[in-house]
Design goal:
It is a single chain. With about 475 residues, the chain is an alpha+beta fold. The chain is built from 17 helices and 14 strands. Helices cover about 40% and strands about 15% of the residues. A hairpin with a 5-residue loop joins strand 2 and strand 3. It has one domain: Cathepsin B, Chain A. The longest helix is centred in the first third of the chain and has 22 residues. Strands 1, 4, 5, 6, 7, 8, 9, 10, 11, 12, 13 and 14 form a 12-stranded mixed sheet that branches. It has a two-stranded antiparallel ribbon with strand order 2-3. Helix 6 runs parallel beside helix 10. The chain is globular, with a radius of gyration of 27 Å.
């Protein structure tokens, strides 16, 4: 009883004090006087009112579009890789898969004199999702001694599966499962619109993960197999059953019949492509937030549990350009990724730092450099595309072009043209065949990679 009376008395003393407390903390909050000072920034002048009226009904990027950049950029390129047709990932995050297959597609079309041809993205996507499910479940088993709120465990349950990815997913999946033409396993609604399927599988995997953490050690692998069987069925219902054998009739670029043969997916890849994707390529990065000429590895940044983590060499941008130019000159497309949404005019398909003048519209300056944008989560690699062209003048790149996977009607004929200045600021990753990589860069691969955590801000999956 005494404790209750004392508490009530104390509360009566505190309430008046709270009522008399200023609106803001003078040591850091917004007080009435401070609010009065900062609110003076908006003067309500005629120009302020005109801008406010415009912004009331119009998107910011529309008003910020530079009137000086309405004309179409010169579309001539001194060096361009031969490609045919454009693909469309629709409402999915499979850009990494489309990009990797598009790189191989251009090679196959040229090597075997084909017409428009595409590999089945859906076939590899099926196995990508199955392998990612296994990666998550096995990682839960591997980390079950850690508390649920451990940073690594929390990251795993936050990211049990997704449709984004990067090149090691392409290389590991193809070398393990092969490829098939698109007509052998065509796209489905859930392949083109992944969100609902992904949501259901995520929830099931999280539930399975909790069960594995509570299970008996001797039963865990059997439990995992049972869980993967359920995931396989869900994928088969949504994406179809991947073929183990198929018959494909081949026609040349003139539409003339060449041959008809029965293949396995692995046999098809070996006959028509045959490259060792896991050992014949390296990934390079331009990330000024970490030291150049060092090799880095991202923990759990892979698609296949028994595959390879993403390992890359961090290099200055000019070194990366040299390799890109050498590859394009040799008619070889490259896997490329960037922060695609920055200063992109989607209608024209032009990425140019001068496309939008946000500073004049808002009356502020944006002064961060590439390093600072990475460090503060303002920029990072978001989308993969196929680098197919460069325009050189006196040996220096003026602009670049990528084949996108947003359909033939998007951008410039299904492509995006990037100024060299934009390339410097928002290009991040490139996958290069080793024959185009200088010896001094290849020698860096002898380093033991610096391991970075899965939650490092630069390494969200490309979508």
């Amino acid at each position: 009883m005494k404790k209750t009376i004392c508490f009530a008395a104390a509360l009566l003393l505190i309430i008046p004090a709270l009522a008399q407390k200023p609106a803001g903390d003078p040591k850091g909050g917004i007080s009435a006087s401070l609010l009065s000072e900062i609110s003076s920034a908006y003067e309500g002048s005629a120009s302020d009112k005109a801008l406010r009226n415009a912004l009331n009904t119009t998107p910011i990027n529309v008003l910020a579009a530079s009137a000086e950049k309405t004309a179409m950029i010169d579309t001539h390129f001194s060096n361009e890789v031969t490609t045919k047709g454009r693909t469309n990932q629709l409402s999915s995050g499979r850009c990494w898969l489309f990009t990797g297959l598009n790189v191989l597609r251009s090679r196959m079309i040229e090597k075997h004199d084909l017409g428009a041809f595409t590999f089945s993205q859906n076939y590899l996507f099926f196995y990508d999702q199955l392998e990612k499910a296994n990666l998550f479940l096995q990682a839960v088993i591997d980390t079950r001694s850690l508390p649920l709120d451990d940073r690594k465990v929390d990251w795993l349950f936050s990211n049990p599966i997704g449709d984004g990815g990067q090149f090691t997913g392409v290389s590991n999946l193809i070398m393990k499962y092969g490829v098939v033409p698109s007509e052998v396993m065509p796209e489905t609604y859930s392949a083109n619109n992944t969100s609902q399927m992904s949501s259901q599988i995520k929830n099931k995997l999280r539930e399975d993960g909790l069960a594995l953490r509570a299970g008996k050690p001797k039963e865990l692998q059997a439990m995992k197999v049972s869980m993967l069987k359920e995931i396989y069925r869900m994928l088969a219902l949504c994406l179809g059953v991947p073929p183990t054998e198929f018959t494909w009739s081949r026609y040349n670029s003139k539409g003339e019949f060449v041959s008809s043969k029965t293949y396995t997916p692995k046999g098809f890849y070996d006959e028509f492509i045959g490259q060792d994707l896991e050992n014949n390529y390296i990934m390079v990065m331009n990330n000024p937030a970490v030291e150049y000429n060092k090799v880095y590895e991202i923990e759990y940044d892979r698609h296949v549990y028994d595959g390879q983590n993403w390992v890359y060499v961090n290099l200055p941008i000019e070194k990366i350009k040299e390799m890109a130019i050498a590859s394009i000159k040799d008619n070889t497309a490259l896997y490329f990724s960037c922060d695609v949404g920055k200063f992109l005019d989607r209608k024209r398909g032009i990425a140019d730092l001068d496309n939008f003048d946000y500073e004049s519209l808002m009356g502020v300056t944006f002064g961060m450099d590439k390093k600072q944008r990475i460090q503060t989560h303002a920029s990072g690699s978001t989308h993969a595309m196929t680098l197919i062209a460069v325009d050189l003048k006196d040996g220096q790149a003026q602009k670049w072009m990528v084949e996108n996977s947003w359909g033939a009607d998007s951008g410039y004929k299904g492509n995006i043209i990037m100024t060299d200045e934009w390339f410097n600021e928002y290009m991040f990753r490139l996958v290069v065949e080793k024959k185009y990589v200088p010896a001094d860069v290849l020698s860096l691969l002898q380093q033991k990679p610096v391991m970075l955590p899965s939650w490092d801000p630069m390494f969200s999956m490309e979508e």
